[in-house]
């Protein structure tokens, strides 16, 4: 089955909500991709979209640097939906007039529906509360268009050219604050573009397997395993496609959480019978990190060591021609969006050097998926819930949670304290309620009293945050009794700690990790 029959193309004009449009479409089981507004018309044609969505964006259509598209996209014979900036751009390109609005509309607004033929089909209410975010508005419609909804601020909050199947909405149907937003998007997909909801995880698995087999042929593939969800799921998918032609390499850098290395090896080797090379390189990493306190330097050293260890190991796999990597969709679109390459590239994941030195080609089977889709995929592939739901863990591991110099002894203290935090959070049923929870070892000693003895020992900070994507976060309001057990257990059970504090900072202005 061609799961891509009926796919949607989203052209990105830089809105913070563009990814949400893609999410909503995927949730409706329709395949879609986001491409930059500057995509060539020949590429757009080659994509063979069943419909095109023009996203919102921060610009004004009359701005000097306003991102534009060629008018040709309206002549491809496929339906187009412009959202916010996309609507204004449509109006301007097709001969309408857009003007600065005296009154900006930000936040909730009432939309009064005037026509329920297609975009608003099945919506009973006359008035919808929708999310607006714009300064410009349409003054005069292009010919062939009519208004199908209005608001207090504009007579053209939704427009349509019935003959050419071109639509525009001033509000954001993709955000959850817009009433009936999902239905409006579904109406565009199913009534107007006439696509079918065929994009499911099992169809994704089938087509990915076929694609990997075709690409790889009889060659060999290597894949680095970090213990995280993305690399494990990548390995599982490739393994399902080509079995023993895949060899995974797991580099134990000595900076993992308690028991993690063993758990990963067990899951992949025992449960899935994968070829897995485990390399214990902890001594090498610790040696590099000796006396290094600067966080960025720690990251660079760890990244460099990882590449060298991985490369040495990969050389033993003769005739490997591919490297499988767990790049996700947000990484892909961040690097092609109007905003330019992401500033948050993770150095340890940068395998560019490996590809070049070893003449490897890259396969990235997850590059179309969002994080929660990867979790669903992992479950479908049989990965244990414990691994699928694992909190994100930074590549440089415990090294950036040990403030100051990293030694074997400090790793041990942190690992034990961290294990207590995770155990108690799980016991309280809070593990899936928080985005991340962990311990941090501070370079601060303080005085305590244990029994009748004076102590002068280390401080552990406990961090638990709630977040949707790691970009912003708030400290989790953990119940006092959970905090109490965590504190008591760490001080009683972890030698070298006599004080526990709870981090109550949000991001921004703090970050999730301490380094
Ligand atoms: P911050 O500390 O920047 O973290 O608020 C945001 C998210 O990114 C993770 N993080 C990293 N992940 N390599 C990674 O793979 C890194 O160097 C790194 N630093 C932070 C952090 O755990 C959180 O989920």
Task: Please give a structural write-up.
Helices cover 33% and strands 24% of the residues. The protein is of the alpha/beta class. The chain has 3 domains: 185 residues, Class I glutamine amidotransferase (GATase) domain (Rossmann fold), CATH 3.40.50.880; 188 residues, Rossmann fold (3-Layer(aba) Sandwich), CATH 3.40.50.620; 102 residues, GMP Synthetase, Chain A, domain 3. The strands form 3 sheets. Strands 2-1-3-4-9-8-7-5-6 form a 9-stranded mixed β-sheet, with helices on both faces. Strands 12-11-10-13-14 form a 5-stranded parallel β-sheet, sandwiched between helices. Helix 6 crosses helix 12 and helix 8 packs antiparallel against helix 9. The relative contact order is 0.09. About 3% of the residues have low confidence. The structure holds xanthosine-5'-monophosphate (XMP). The site of xanthosine-5'-monophosphate has 13 residues, from loops.
């Amino acid at each position: 089955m061609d799961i891509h029959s009926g796919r949607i193309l989203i052209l990105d004009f830089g809105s913070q909500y563009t990814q949400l449009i893609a999410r909503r479409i995927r949730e409706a089981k329709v395949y879609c991709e986001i491409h930059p507004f500057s995509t060539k018309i020949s590429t757009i044609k080659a994509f063979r979209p069943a419909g095109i969505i023009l996203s919102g964006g921060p610009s004004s259509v009359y701005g000097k640097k306003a991102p534009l598209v060629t008018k040709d996209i309206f002549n491809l014979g496929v339906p187009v939906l412009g959202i916010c900036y996309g609507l204004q751009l449509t109006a301007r390109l097709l001969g309408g007039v857009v003007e600065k609005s005296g009154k900006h509309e930000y936040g909730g607004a009432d939309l009064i529906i005037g026509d329920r033929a297609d975009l608003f089909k099945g919506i009973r209410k006359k008035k919808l509360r929708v999310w607006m975010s714009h300064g410009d508005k349409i003054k005069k419609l292009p010919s062939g268009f009519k208004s199908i909804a209005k608001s207090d601020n504009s007579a053209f909050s939704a427009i349509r050219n019935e003959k050419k199947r071109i639509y525009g909405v001033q509000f954001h149907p993709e955000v959850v604050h817009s009433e009936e937003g999902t239905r409006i998007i579904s109406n565009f997909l199913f009534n107007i573009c006439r696509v079918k909801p065929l994009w499911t995880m099992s169809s994704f698995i089938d087509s990915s397997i076929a694609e990997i087999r075709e690409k790889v042929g009889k060659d060999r593939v290597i894949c680095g395993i970090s213990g995280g969800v993305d690399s494990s799921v990548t390995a599982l998918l490739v393994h399902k496609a080509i079995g023993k032609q895949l060899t995974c390499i797991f580099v134990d850098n000595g900076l993992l959480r308690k028991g993690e290395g063993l758990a990963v090896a067990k899951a992949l080797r025992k449960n899935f019978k994968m070829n897995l090379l485990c390399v214990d390189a902890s001594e090498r990493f610790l040696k590099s990190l000796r006396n290094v306190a600067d966080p960025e330097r720690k990251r660079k050293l760890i990244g460099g060591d990882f590449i060298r260890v991985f490369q040495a190991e990969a050389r033993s796999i003769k005739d490997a021609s591919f490297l499988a990597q767990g790049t996700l969709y947000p990484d892909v679109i961040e690097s092609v969006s109007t905003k330019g390459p992401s500033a948050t590239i993770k150095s340890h994941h940068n395998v560019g050097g490996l590809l070049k030195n070893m003449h490897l080609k890259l396969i990235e089977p997850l590059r179309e998926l969002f994080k929660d889709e990867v979790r669903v995929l992992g479950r479908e592939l049989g990965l244990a819930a414990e691994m699928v739901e694992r909190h994100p863990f930074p590549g440089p591991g415990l090294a950036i949670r040990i403030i100051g110099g990293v030694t074997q002894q400090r790793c041990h203290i942190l690992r034990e304290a961290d294990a207590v935090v995770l155990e108690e959070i799980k016991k309280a049923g809070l593990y899936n309620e928080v985005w991340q929870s962990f311990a941090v070892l501070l370079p601060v000693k303080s005085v305590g009293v244990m029994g009748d003895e004076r102590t002068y020992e280390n401080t552990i900070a406990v961090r638990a945050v709630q977040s949707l994507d790691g970009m912003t976060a708030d400290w989790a309001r953990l119940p006092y009794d959970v905090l109490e057990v965590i504190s008591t257990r760490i001080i009683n059970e972890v030698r070298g700690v006599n004080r526990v504090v709870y981090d109550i900072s949000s991001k921004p202005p703090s970050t999730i990790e301490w380094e």
